[in-house]
Design a protein that fits this description.
This protein has 102 residues and is mostly helical. Helices cover 49% and strands 0% of the residues. It starts with a helix and ends in a 35-residue tail after the last helix.
Length: 102
């Protein structure tokens, strides 16, 4: 039963996402779904087809999460400080002050 529910929510979300992407592309251009996904324009005006598609997509997403026992990460607070990514020299390279040891 749980596997069937997950499959159903996969299908439901794909259908709702496709409808939303189609409305976004018609209203804002072909690259709009990727470019404006998190912008206010993604929601559409109240009563518009874009708003209906957005709301259906959000409901499908919530069902998809629920079927998997997941929470909506978009509303979760940052739990730790992001790690700094080291960029630059590697030990033993010409830019590194640390010699490579054998």
């Amino acid at each position: 039963m749980a596997a069937t529910n997950r499959q159903n929510t996969d299908f439901l979300f794909r259908q709702a996402d496709e409808a939303w992407r189609t409305e976004m592309a018609q209203r804002h251009g072909a690259d709009a779904p990727a470019r404006l996904r998190y912008a206010p324009e993604a929601r559409g005006e109240p009563g518009s087809r874009l708003r209906q598609a957005f709301n259906a997509r959000e409901r499908a997403y919530q069902l998809w999460l629920k079927a998997r026992g997941l929470g909506d990460f978009r509303h979760a607070p940052l739990t730790r400080t992001p790690e700094t990514i080291a960029v630059g020299a590697v030990a033993g390279t010409p830019l590194s002050p640390v010699p490579l040891r054998a």
